[in-house]
Amino acid sequence: MKNPKQYRKFSGFVVVLIMLLSEKVQTQQDPGFTQYMYNTMSVNPAYAGSKKHTVFNILARSQWVGIDGAPETQTLSYDTSLRYTSVGIGLNVMNDKIGPAQKTQIDANVSYSLQVTDASFLALGLKLGGRLFNVDWSKGIYKNPDRVFDTNVNNEFSPTIGFGAFYYSDKFYVGASVPNVLRTNNYSASKENVALEKEHMFLIAGYVFDINRDLKFKPALLFKAVMNDPSSLDISANFLYLDKFRGGVSYRWNDAISALLGFQVTNSLNIGYAYDLTTSNYGVYNTGTHEFMLRYEIFSRGPEISPRFF
Question: Cα(239)–Cα(235) distance, rounded to whole angstroms?
Fold first, then answer.
């Protein structure tokens, strides 16, 4: 393999497979987003309906650009509060591809909010749904005589049941969740175990400081723990100017440093972009990660005078 480009593509694809696939069993970690704070329902079902109006959200993430078979993830979500009730509902659809593997996930979310003080609420959430897991070994350039790598996985179904709690006001939030309490295995047609789904636990928190009338500052964190796997900590700091312009940075422990930008185009339309620079050893194989966000809100009682910064 004398061609440097061919070698880089080959080595990059092998790196992805080594990280994702072992001889028999692969632990499946749920994909994460740098801009998770603008689609919190993806990690905590109790967030559904917390904005008290209808929200549509799209996130698209291209990870480790420059590596063939690197992760590509898209998610579409919808949530709203049922008028004159304390109930919120939401739907989240996600497509996640990496190498020869693809996972499609659809989850329905419902929450119920209890008013704790005049300005704060405690929401409890339930998630129900399912995942379809596929592996097509004809995709990619990696070959292996092992029959595990020669037998495709076709629409292997796994149910999902998750729970969450979300305590919030217009200035702060803190939440805990387990998006899927079921531990399931995915098998190939030859009955070989190729993927193991493990429980994930998420802790999130953030606080909005009013620096002055025009400027807000919001530090936030997300902690993810996976059974018998390395934990992940994401710390971010974002500024909002004139309720329109957003900018900030985040750091994912031993993984990446990120820049975040956003703009409130209209009262309803918000766009965002994040760039991750890989700080781990995998950084030598890629040129970073790009993530795009589009959010559209429908107000039943007119636009918010001061939009909530999460």
Answer: 14
What are the backbone dihedrals phi and psi of residue 46, each rounded to the nearest 5 degrees, phi first? Answer: -70, -15
User: CATH fold of 45-298, please?
Assistant: Porin (2.40.160)
Cα(189)–Cα(57) distance, rounded to whole angstroms?
36
Q: Which helix (H) or strand (E) holds 17?
A: helix 4-20
pLDDT > 70 in the chain, percent: 79
CA distances from 51 to 63, 98, 202 (A): 29, 33, 20
Please tell me whether residue 261 adopts helix, strand or coil conformation.
strand
H helix or E strand, kind and range, residue 207: strand 200-207
Chain position carrying tokens 């409130």: 264
Residue 203: pLDDT band by 50, 70, 90 thresholds?
very high
Residues 6+ apart with CB under 8 A from 152: 134, 135, 136, 137, 138, 188, 189
* Domain ranges across the chain: 45-298
What is the value of pTM for the model shown?
A: 0.83
Q: Determine the straight-line distance between the first and last CA of the chain, rounded to whole angstroms.
A: 49
Dihedral of the alpha carbons of 160, 192, 156, 21, in degrees to the nearest 10 = 70
Q: According to the model, what pLDDT value does residue 152 have?
A: 81
Question: Binning pLDDT at 50, 70 and 90, where does residue 12 land?
Answer: very low
Q: How far is 57 from 34, CA to CA, in rounded Å?
A: 14
